[in-house]
Amino acid sequence: MIALMTCPQAAESEFRVGFGRRKITPTEKLWMSGYAGPHRIATGVLDDLFAQAMAIRDRSGTRALLLRIDVCTMRDATITKICDLIGQRTGLRRQEILVNVSHTHSGPAVDELYHYPMSTDDRARLAAYTERLKSMCADAAEDAVRNLKPAVLEFGVGKAKFFHNRRGLDSSGQYTGMQANPDNYTDRDVPVLRVTGPDGWVRGIVFGVACHNVTLGVNTEYSGDFAGQARVQLEKKIPHALFVTGCGADANPYRGTNGTELVRLHGVTLAEEINRGMDKPMKAIQGPLRTSFRYVDLPLITYSSRSDIEKMRRGPFANYGTVNKLLALLDRGAKIPTTYAAPLSVWQFGEDLTLAGLPEETVSEYVPLLRSAAGPGNLWTAGYCNDVSSYLPTVRIMEQGGYETRGFIAETPAGWYAPEVEKTLVTAVAEMISEADLAVARHSKPTTIETFAEWRFKPASPHSGLKVIGNVPPGVRGLQFDGESYLEGPSVRLPGAETKGLTMAAWIKPDPAGMIGNRMIVCQWANEVSNDRFGFSLNNGKPSLGVGDGVTGEQGFTCDQTLSTDRWTFVAVTWDASTRRYSVYIAG
After folding, report:
1. How many domains in the chain?
2. Which helix (H) or strand (E) holds 234?
3. pLDDT tens across 21-45, in order?
4. What would the 3-class secondary structure string for 113-170 be?
5. Which domain range does residue 210 map to?
6. pTM of the model
7. Strand 167-169 versus strand 50-58 pairing type
């Protein structure tokens, strides 16, 4: 193996990172997952399957663990048991663990004991393997936590072109079948998180692609598909390469008659793109690290009568299984579920990177929807996280119809998503990101203050309200006073203020009422004219600063950008009396 070396920019490691892995390729010939039609029992191994883990700890002791597994599906109940095992061995809490499955269609049918017509012996073998798999996943996680070492994190984004949107549409915009559709949105980003030791050697990477892992098609050899082949190529130079599946439920790789050769080619192409990206400057990732996890009830379609459910049989063939499950519930006297408890994860790395983990087979449109809701910044959106039991469509795809609108594949819950699911999911994730921003900001202190606008007083200049226009960088993020839109400091005399100047800081998030007129954010005003003083306020929603230097009167400026009412913003204002200069820091 040839080791890859880089030159980290940070002199001091912000994080400690560890890796662990276990080969999870079954030794038995188990039923394989991914396709409803053919009865597939494994006949061999094309490339090995793995459970891989990356553990992270920041300077404050906050921990997180990414576990990715080469299986097609895995339910919340199984993942919860794995997380419980990890917690027992490492002390990690559920909110600190994010689990992603590669969705390879060339792996064992984990959590699908009754989805296929297996014999009793086949089910017993698969159930026994699943129990071993839980332990192997916990082993990999325990190794990662045990092997924490100082590390520098860097982030970059490449592009992939070996796949396409698979939803064919007619002239009226209705679904016609699976076929390449270049007009439909596809998330082609290849996010890469690089982990480098203080010595400059690359210890590992995490990379993502928003595409179905199905190059091999109806195959009977165990394989990680294109993601597994990319890992093989990358690990020729890097000890650990972890693939995270993106929101690619409606994207397929290009396929041909020789699947074995094509899957290798896709893997090589992807690895080359990742290596090219790492040859370019990457963004340094700083802490603190904050993690969150919650269940959010996503709405399902409700039915007023049994006949309403039976009418669904007239739809596509894919509806039959869901209809039968719903009718079986009624026959048992059970209630039809109205919601699905979706497990969501968000990791926040300072102000540099957000990782959002969405459950289910998530369609690609959720990527721009979340970017729009969460605001600018480095947002990495992963699908197939924490539970995979059905497709998760958007409203537009529901209106178009088709394969990705089919009901739940697993036994429970049963039903179809309601159109309100899109807004519910996007709102919940955006709130989690905002709360993660809040948690980060409460524990962050700016190491440097960059001047984005300044005004130098001229000696003996007359008292005036001269305004200077400044520029606020985009992507403002930060905090709010609980329930308030402003804070006013005490009016006190500051000894020595004439020579030392003043500095004050605050986290703000204006309420709508604070966007009209002039509202004070934070001020420090002296009782006597001879003292330095300033006031930082919102002038019709725009940050405004007024300064009094005790000699020439009061002057200031108003920024040209309006603060957002749904974002936290860190502000610091400084007046240096010795240089007669003031500066303002606003969220970077």
Report:
1. 2
2. helix 225-234
3. 999 999 999 999 988 766 789 999 9
4. CCCCCCCHHHHHHHHHHHHHHHHHHHHHHHHHHHCCEEEEEEEEEEECCCEEECEEEC
5. 15-288
6. 0.75
7. unpaired
